[in-house]
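Marked as duplicate of an earlier ticket. Keeping the data here for the record.
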Amino acid sequence: MHLTLKQYNPPAGYGVPLFPYVPALSVGINAFLLGQLKQAAYERFGIWTAFVTLVYVLYSMPASAYRERKRSSLPDAKVAGDDRMPPRDSAQEMTEDVGAKKTAVS
């Protein structure tokens, strides 16, 4: 007795041409270029990164506090961008859906 099953062949997706060689060559070239930079370039990069991080932290803390205040002042409303609403009970949803259908039919 011979049974056959249909094989699942997932799509290949994106592939890097000449896989192990092109990425390795890219890493090597970038390492070489980074080695050619002067120390002043790394210092400027470090200062710029610290400045941007400071701006991000100083902006995000008040924005987060504002969002918390807005959420607490509206206990039953969903604040825009807030995906942390508690999940509804599936039995409650079914009961509400059936009730809505009955009133629509009547």
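See parent ticket for discussion. The radius of gyration is 28 Å.
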